[in-house]
Structures
1.
Amino acid sequence: MEITQAMLNAWMQMYLWPFLRIGALVMTAPPLNAKAVAPRVRLVFALLLTLVLSPLLDAPSNLTPLSAIWGLQIARELIVGAALGLILQLVFEGVMLAGEVISFGMGLGFAQLADPLRGAAAPMLGQFYQVCAMMLFLAFGGHLQLVQLLADSFHAAPPGSAAPDAASFLNLARIGGLCFAGALRVALPAVIALLLVNLCFGVMNRSAPTLNALSLGFPLSLLVGMLVLRLALPQLPAALGDLLGQAFSFAAAWTQGAH
């Protein structure tokens, strides 16, 4: 069997375009974007996923290798893949933010631990929420939905089509508001309860200045915060499920408009 230059170009484009988008998504989407995951693991996963999905996709446009259009299409595939992963990452950042807000309200803002997923220090309660969110993400089958979203994106925005316009990037920026709203939904019960506790101790401190409100307020705030967390934690799966559903729906709609 004689292998020609045209055959090599066809094989390269058959696997190159999916690999670029998949590789960018693997670098930005949870849980594989964690620093604890070795780059070799991400590379192997991206290669395996490319080998599985490439035969199921339509033949990409035959672009001349090393041309200007070819380079622009490489940038486009990287942008689309990174954007899909960023949308899901913002959901976990919102949950992490909710844990941080609750930590500061409980007086645990000083309780910093090394976060292996981020490679930096983070509040202890924020890490707890993030680990719970990651376990729920896997329990909901979010990794399978992510693969399905990736496969659908190649049909909605196939390689070789036009690059995302300014409106697409504007819509992508608006997903941040959704994640902040989700963080507020998760943290609101504990924040309101802790705010009431602080208001009560503020009134007590004004009415009885000799009372050491600091020595009493910190343990009581911690106790109330743990009690509220115990009552609010069962609502986390529903809140996270809604956020993930909106994120996946937004990502699917964004890929349809990003071409």
2.
Amino acid sequence: MKRLLLPALILFAAGCAEDGARSGGGTLITSDGRFLANTDRNAKAEAERAITVSIGERLGVTWQVRAEITEMPELHGDPDQGIPEWRWASAHAQVVLVGPGTPSVPTAEIQAGVERYLTRKLAPKAPGPVVVTVQVQSPSAPPVAPPATSERRYTAQAGDTWADVSTAFYGSPDGWRVIRDANGGAERPEAGAVLTIPRR
């Protein structure tokens, strides 16, 4: 049985942080060679992208893959003993496969592979649970509504924009209107406000 191989994140010690994001200092070098600010948002987005790419390579071009991790990572490690890493206290992820028929890779195998990957990303001290759900949809089917408990929240930081929040949770700034409209439609998120992040 093939395992899901997911590329690791490499941290490089230079660069600056995005506004409103928690920074680990330095630059995040992604598995495809892009340089990003070493922030919690970018670490989360890169982990989601790594899951998506790995599964997509296994399923082929007829399948679209979306992966979302509910929680944001925290910086762990002693700077004196090496470069700290972004880790999750616990991880809840949803993987959606959109394509024709039944996936060529069993969903149980996909679920197990994502669970192994996220387990390696947990904080070393008192790691919490890893819960992964995998849904299969046909291209013409309406999106499956997530369970009520899957609604996500984010506490806005000073300097956040709707585009920043969209990039952190959806992987691109394109969903900024969805998040803004779900939170009262203000011009910018107010620092300290607890925002509702709708599923897409």
3.
Amino acid sequence: MPADTPEKIAPPADQFVGGVVIRSTGSWYDVQAGGRVVKSKVRGKFRLEDQDLTNPVAVGDQVTIRLNPDDTGLITAIHERKNKLSRRAAGRRVGREQVIVANIDAVWIIQSVRLPRPNPGFIDRVLVTAEAHDIEANLVFNKIDLIRPKDSDKLDFLVALYTDLGYRVLLTSAKTGEGAEAFRDALTGQTSVVTGPSGVGKSTLLNAIEPGLDLRTGEVSAKTRKGRHTTTHAALFPLSDGGFVVDTPGIREFGVLDLEPWELSHHFPEFRPHLAHCRFPTCTHDHEPGCAVKEAYLNDEITEERYYSYLNILHSIHLGEKDVGR
């Protein structure tokens, strides 16, 4: 080797440790590595390797980091994921993926009975995404202390609809504590993520079941009737009864990714008994003749709300999710 060529010396093995990403704050990631949290950055090559991802590393990822002399870390490897919950990223660039969380057992979709009102379209998009990635999905209707007589029929309909489809549905009030124990028990022993629009009370509900979290909370705007963002970054927290929960920023849009139009119906449980009876195996249940799903809808075996929600998601898939369904 020429004298003027520096010899490359590998860093000592003890400079590399494994850990889990517990918080993402943009360019920095908090990695739980043993008994400490190491603020870490990610190697630029990960961003260059996959331009379709807005974030190569997500909360819940198992990673390897190289420890730096200043007690920060560099993420050098991202281990294979068990699963992920992701959405089509908002913005002008079509097709980019935003991974919300990785390696979870269950997703809880949080909605409020009012202020803001429930959004079944949002619910259905998350349910489809969870099913596509083999993640257990459940629902919480929060703020039941705010319910008015005129809201009851709509809530009863939604609870019955999703319960009949096989999803677990809880009714809670972070203010009164109603349903909090059932929600706490449901999270115990699992790694779960809570997701939903701003203002539905995700952080307030988590504070109610685990007071030590002390998560920031906010009020719904009286003018827009929408929540204000208080949780700005996803973060994973341990629960005192066992398990972990990921709190996420409020999401108003949830664009479905990586599904062909004909695949979408396979993630609507009430559609599945009819799929084999359609004339065409790749039927999209929109315009095709001999469609057993559309016949089931016309015979009131599939609700109007779910059928039109399906068509809305189907339309956005055809468009490449240019309009990601507010």
4.
Amino acid sequence: MRFMSLVFVAALASPAIAADFTVKASTIEDRKAVIATVEPVHQLVARARLGGVIVALKAREGDVVGAGQEIATIADQKLALQIQALDQRIRSQQAQRDQAKSDFDRIQELQRRGVSAQTQLDQAKTALDVAERTLAAMQADRGVIEQQAAEGAVLASGAGRVLTVPVAEGRVVLPGETIATLAENNYILRLALPERHAQFMRAGDRVLIGARGLQSDAGDVRREGRVRLVYPEIQGGRVVADVEVDGLGDYFVGERTRVWVSTGGRLALVVPAAALYQRAGANFVRLGDGSEIVVQPGEKSAEGVEILSGLKVGDIVVAP
């Protein structure tokens, strides 16, 4: 069960008297400061599709690349030799096809004159068909090798920033070997909270993000985010959640920052900060009847200052 304690919120008693507030009870959120890590939504891996030698690296760590951009070029010298050999065989087969075509045309003309038999024409037609199909097969084989050579270009599968390039020019790589890892441009904050907070985390919850760095405090809140996903598995006693925030593109992947997440609701006394004043080291508020009350302030929030003691529901608070 979600734990609820008493909170009192000061509200306007009358729109005509802007400085008078009537204290009443209202539920507010408790927030806990935790550390979040900047992570890409997806981490992409550019792999070698062809075994060979890296002849060119066209990206390095930190570069921003677009989808389909070439990152590296891999060459296999055996493919070039195979293409040369096929080219010679294709030329030879073209000559055989031309000879078969010439024989077929001559026999067809003789058959038209009644000099040649139909059997000879059929044999010439068959020889021509075989020569043409053999030539087409050789040309298809050459296209396969050309496609294999084209696969030596390692392309980025999506737009993002290059994180690592664990290879160098001149290195021999195998098919499937990692050439570079990339982080997609869309970054999120990843939280790991103790499992006792799992019941309070919901997709769509509001999260407050502090100033960049780990030295920020609650007064340094710069922006808001929303819980994008709460993972349904608890690992090592912690529940993991992703938070969507605008403007994380200039952060480092793995950079940590402070955030405040909701850990349940409670009730407390809150008055506008302008209603509090200090005298002789004590904090006071003035009531509607003119009397002064010593109060114990607590946590500050956007609604005002929480009052731990000194006020009760129904009191009229006047800003000095």
